């Protein structure tokens, strides 16, 4: 459910390819780093949305004052919401103003003393030094948007966290329902704590409700084992890492930060082609310490997820939160209470359904506000 709402972190590593996508903490921008295009322009001032204009610095002078602790100054535009910064970087790259490897430049070395960078951002200093041979105290980093989080996920009962598969529970990023269309920073941890506890309790109650130990179908177990080991035993087949690269390219180009109908339909067509390669994937070697085998098994889940995201994105004909359609650029009120549910149909193919979400009753809203007042006054 709601799998079309994907959050792109604006700054992931762009080079070398072996580390592409590894996150570059927002702390770099919070501690003074700025985003530059290949012309050396600090471009984020050109992308401040009207709704954030009142709280965002519109000059470099004011942004620098904020960095020095001036309480009267507004935050730099590099610290706008993740989706805004990610879309801005994407726009610069598409306009031909990107970095050598398809991102932009994140520069902190020319603005903050080296000893401060090493003290405040030691992990980032070592990450770039070891993985990219870049000294961030002297050189800018190449960064670009990277898929970071799924707001949607498995549809679960909100009390027990049980899915529609008996005995299967989900919590955290795997589950849908909490984050709406755009997760707020920090909420994933509270999500795990609260709903992890609920799913644990739900699982315990489920087990206690059983009359006996469920029977396992030995033939299904054997089928699963054969399906996994066939990958190792085939005479020939497609390299799993090449399939994964192919799938990543299809999704990045057609189902990225901004989406349009034609590209989404192209993605679905390409994914059908890739499914045939996934069915005949071959991993050389044995079952011991074999990353290729692990990647080949994971492809089966990746292709399902990729198709689900694409079909849900095609179905939602508006822009909301982390989901942006250039052909339906504005929020549409009639979609406000609609969840997109994707499931496996009886024929084995994927089905998409619009489900009308019921809002809280007036009575429940009053109870919630009363609880908030109790928390604020220290009664609970």
Give short descriptive properties of this protein.
Methane Monooxygenase Hydroxylase, Chain G, domain 1, alpha+beta, 41% helix, Flavocytochrome C3, Chain A, domain 1, two-stranded parallel sheet, 11 helices, 380 residues, 3 domains, single chain
Q: Can you characterise this structure?
A:
Helices cover about 40% and strands about 10% of the residues. With about 375 residues, the protein is an alpha+beta fold. It folds into three domains: about 5-150, Succinate dehydrogenase/fumarate reductase flavoprotein, catalytic domain (Flavocytochrome C3, Chain A, domain 1, Alpha-Beta Complex), CATH 3.90.700; about 150-210, no CATH class; about 220-355, Fumarate reductase/succinate dehydrogenase flavoprotein-like, C-terminal domain (Methane Monooxygenase Hydroxylase, Chain G, domain 1). α4 packs across α5, α8 (about 240-255) packs parallel to α10 (about 290-315) and α9 packs antiparallel against α10 (about 290-315). The model has no long low-confidence stretch (mean pLDDT about 95).
